[in-house]
Amino acid sequence: MPDLSSFSLAGKVVVQCGGTGLLGRALVSGLAAAGATLVVASRNRAALAALADAEQAAGRTVLIEETDIGSEDSLRGLRDRLLIAHGRIDGLVFNAVSRPMRAFGDDLSAWESSMATNATGFFATARVFGDAMAARGSGSIVNIASMQGMIGPNFWLYEGTSMTAAPDYFFHKGGMINFTRYLAAHYGPRGVRANVVSPGGIFNPEKPQAPAFLERYGKTTLLGRMAEAREIGGAVVFLLSDASTYVTGANLPVDGGYTAK
Amino acid sequence: MTSWHSLGDKTIWVTGGAGYLGSAITEELDRQQAVTLCLDLPGKAEALVRQKNLTHTIPLALDVNDADGLPAAIDRLVAEHGVPDGVVHLTYASSAGKRLEELSKDDFQKTFDQALPSTFVFCRALAERMKARGSGSIVLFSSMYGVVAPDPRVYLPPLTPNPIDYGASKAAILQMSRYFAVHYGPAGVRFNCITPGPFPNPGVQQSQPAFVQALAGKTALQRIGHNREIVGPALFLLTDSASFVTGHNLVVDGGWTAW
User: 3-state class of B86 per DSSP?
Assistant: First the structure.
């Protein structure tokens, strides 16, 4: 019988798409520390190698797989290799994102490029791994959206800085949240759960956001600050683990209360 | 990994801690070696501690519906056991239990009088103490019927749909959790709500198989929930695993409200 109170991922084979950015690296550390057999899939070979080395140095092991989520063949190849090597896939964390668009006035080709990854690539990934988990009768999909898929942009936050809010992001993160409910309904009868985590803004300690932004942003959360990247991992581990076996179709914001007010 | 969600040195209160959902939470907190105050109707918490051989749980009687008596009762509990690190408030699922057509104004009023002022007083009293310390997590319980209305097709005669006074008071609890989250967020006190889907107790599971099947059919997972499955969500919200989660309604309903 699974331990329904444990947040352990020991014995679970988890695929994480997108693991080399600020949030992705923190998720990798959190999932690996929770005991998952973690496979990080990304297109960036050099960044993957650096990630594996950094985790090794911290005493954790992660497996890396160069994968192009824009290619269904690449995704199927990854699935087949994992099933041969491990015999099972228990979880998918979809954290891959492409951010080609900067401003509202950008060329439509930037929008199309965004959708190729963030809409088509996301759907293809969820289907390839969702089907594989459904075939075994269990599994958990955790999609990483954003509170920017729940609410519109507050441009006041960015005034006087070089930061802005790109329009494509609000479109595909909003779509991701409701598509997660579709996945929950589609795969539920075959024992696969699907949930979405919606982080608020994440502080970047290596390249801090503009002070004016940080001050204004802090005032808009109930906890008075941006998230630390590691704080998203708790929610993801919870949703992957057997602690959440009756949670499906849920959107879990980790936003310090930004969207609660 | 234990440090992520360690409860070993924490004091946690669970109201309704000996009920169907509450007992599963109390038992797990005990296993995690949290100092657990199990608060329930007279005799119920003691019976749970005895039957399950709980070693870290302190069984106590508390009338959580007595809004006038709660401040003094909480004073006494805090004086003896300290300010809790976390509280799970499984508010008494109050309802007059009448059909909509037969529910009087006074019946309706009584449900609210029992459930809402007492929850407000209870939460404020504890949050004020947590505020002085600068940390704490309080978890309230709503219901899927505080979010969606009962589907009459699930309630075949002689059953009647889950009552309107129940759903309306549970919706109020959910909104109260958000209000508290905003009010006490700057003080480091987190408030969240759990919204359970269909968790019929063992008595209902045994006596109403057709009803249970109808409930299961309303979920994406095509099954009812079991009380052990409410434990993980409660522990998640209580611990530092959820340090940036506040004002949230965590739905644990097998997908009931997702489609």
Answer: strand
